[in-house]
């Protein structure tokens, strides 16, 4: 196996490159295909928090998997010190579904004033160590760290992938034909269109739209943080003075956001918090399309010389590096 193609340069594709650069460099040539203008990169339209979210081992397969991914990500941050990743506190709480909340966060407390926040009434609140990610900076860092690889980047969209006797033939929007020894599909919500090659294994995957408000030039102090209040999120990036509020979730493939739902989230947060939010009209609306696989579980699939990785749904930044290492391990066994 010498010539590898990776389709997709979101967090899945770039984590793959990074893991390849850190491991054994088995490939003589790696081609990375991506086209944000043709299929918008969800990783650039993401609130991008990595947090344990009160999960612990031994309750569900998905929970175990996410706990493992959080540990891998934490070690990656500690050892590799990537740009664009900031240690923060994740505050999670609310006034509804208290039984669930207390079960998940037994160490929370009722308070009107909690750390950086003042609420209009007592809320149940817990906090945990987490990471805030600036997607543009971290994704760029992952690519820069992969400079030791024999990498060719193509701003082009892959239209067909067919196994032939010499390998895997890839045809693109710009009219090129390439042949590789192996192909990895890391195309996010676009992976579901490649059912034919995967023997229909991807047919149960659903695209899920997520949108949020982004306010610029906001000054809420020196500390970045993430607050989740009854499922509504408020994320403050102190380094870039950005405030994010969201996010919605709608099972659809289109990008027109649900403005009413965003307004409701904004109003709920404004009425719970003793904090003057910027005017709703000042927000830029960001929309990403996530990929939800059965049981919300990420997947690695293989058929012949083709591999698929994805299904990261709401946890792309947690799972990226952990699952990149997993697929590389599996490919080495098959080689
Ligand atoms: C509103 C919102 C909030 C979120 N919050 C969080 C969060 O707090 N924490 C977290 O960890 N995750 C979060 N997520 C989820 C996370 O952003 C996604 O799981 C992750 O970005 C998916 O990454 P990906 O690399 O699989 O896909 P993408 O980022 O979509 O990348 C796929 C790339 O493949 C390219 N591509 C696809 N097909 C082709 C083709 N045929 N040829 C060439 N290129 C192709 C596309 O152009 C795209 O650039 C959130 C998502 C949304 C929408």
Shape: elongated
What is the fold named in CATH at topology level of the largest domain? FAD/NAD(P)-binding domain
- What is the alpha-carbon Rg in Å? 21 Å
H/E element string?
EHEEHEHEEHEEEEEEEEEHEEEH
CATH H-level name of the largest domain... which superfamily? FAD/NAD(P)-binding domain
Averaging pLDDT over every residue, what do you get?
95
Q: What is the β-strand count?
A: 18
Quickly give the structural class.
alpha/beta
Low-confidence stretches: none
The level-1 CATH class of the largest domain? Alpha Beta
Summarize, please.
It is built from six helices and 18 strands. It has about 325 residues and is an alpha/beta fold. The strands form three sheets. Strands 3, 4, 5, 6, 12, 13, 14, 15 and 16 form a nine-stranded mixed beta sheet that branches. Strands 7-2-1-11-18-17 form a six-stranded mixed beta sheet, with helices on one face. The chain has a three-stranded antiparallel beta sheet with strand order 8-9-10, with no helix packed on it.
